[in-house]
Amino acid sequence: KWKGEGTTQNLENIVIGRCYDYIRIVNPAVGEKNCSQIWEAFKNAFINKDPCSILPKDYELFINLSLHTIPPNKSLFWENNQLLVNSFTDRGRRFMSLADTLFGFFGDFLNWCGQADSPGLDYESCPTTMECENNAVESFWRMASITYAQHSSGVIHVLLNGSADGGAYPQPGFFADYEIPNLQKGKVSEIVIWVVDDIEGPDIDSCGIHSVKTLETRLKTLGYDVTCTDN
Question: What CDD domains does the record tag this protein with (predicted)?
Answer without folding.
Answer: Rib_hydrolase (cd04759)
